[in-house]
């Protein structure tokens, strides 16, 4: 006789029995396990035969799983058996998939793809791959289930990137997305890779052009005002805003700023002290070629200290990076991606690149603050090698705090529409 809701609620274990089974039909049963004392637990099970072997599958516990829900799950499992499948194997695969990719969001699958591919990729390629994914896809679709993302969704992302004038970036982003969906396909999370439908629709990239830099003062002021309000808009991360501001206020290379570590920040001296041995690749070669010291010192202005203090309050204590990844699961191992700042500024409608902040520093500090080039160049670690480089390093190191403070004040004046005054320098003794 089939069960009813009332019978299920009233069911109790048979006296003296450790487990009582009450059948509902077609392999579905309510099992009642006796616990200690008068306590007991109820659960739904399904028994089925597959290739001559009887199997038992737990569907869920009662009352969390109602009688009607248990019947629906049982019917679904029986249909799978009728089609030659094994619901227990399907469940195991689903558990393995969830362990690998969490809830199946695009961000989860992207992170799982990186972990799966890391061994076969060079560290540099893996870092670049993640930068494109993190900067252009995770903000817009990171929280969406990967199975719900269509070719039309991806095409919208392509057109948005192309509208920034960076067609080549659109191609790289979609090649990155192709790997994510291929991984999802292998795990049975999607039926096909939608990126394959949109790759042919990406426009042909124009010839590359040098790093852009905004030298129009009014345009720069407007950009800085937009950047000040950047994180107030939905879906925009405060870490991106602070990293972008740090690019301006330090005028250092993007890779250095993005990889800034707490251990290199001297709050008392208000300095960012970067040991040259911590730098890698081409960045290290550039800085070491100009270095006369084993530590590159960047004085921190009041404005930059405000950014540092805000990050200290927002970043967990066990995260080594001042500007960690915007993906929480990667913050302990990965800094914010190198292209994120440039993409954020481009999304605001400006052509300013992160590298362009260094050009701005040199141009505006010479033209507006009237600071000589020889005093500015060592700040950027462009300094000369040999005897002349050592002389400039010793001659201008004491002036760097005043130079960096003047630079931050100049940026604030442009942002607020104020007048920029020449920098006052100490007279020679």
Q: Overview of this structure, please?
A:
The chain is an alpha+beta fold. It has three domains: 5-85, Integrase, DNA-binding domain (Double Stranded RNA Binding Domain, 2-Layer Sandwich); 101-201, Tyrosine recombinase, N-terminal domain (DNA polymerase, domain 1, Orthogonal Bundle), CATH 1.10.150; 217-416, Intergrase catalytic core (hpI Integrase, Chain A). Helices cover 49% and strands 11% of the residues. It is built from 19 helices and seven strands. The chain has helices spanning 5-10, 67-82, 87-101, 106-117, 123-136, 138-141, 151-163, 167-186, 195-198, 217-228, 238-250, 254-258, 281-290, 302-314, 340-347, 356-367, 373-376, 386-396, 400-416; strands spanning 19-25, 28-34, 40-50, 53-62, 265-266, 271-275, 295-299. Strands 1-2-3-4 form a four-stranded antiparallel beta sheet. Strands 5-6-7 form a three-stranded antiparallel beta sheet. A hairpin with a 2-residue loop joins strand 3 and strand 4. Helix 11 (238-250) packs across helix 15 (340-347). The longest helix is centred in the middle third of the chain and has 20 residues, at 167-186. The chain is elongated. Mean pLDDT is 83; it is low at 208-212 and 383-395.
Spell out the helices and strands N to C.
Answer: HEEEEHHHHHHHHHHHEEHEHHHHHH
The description of the largest β-sheet is: 4 strands, antiparallel
Number of structurally distinct domains:
3
CATH topology of the largest domain: hpI Integrase, Chain A
Q: Evaluate the radius of gyration.
A: 30 Å
In CATH terms, the superfamily of the largest domain is Intergrase catalytic core
Detail the poorly predicted runs.
Answer: 208-212, 383-395
CATH C-level label of the largest domain = Mainly Alpha
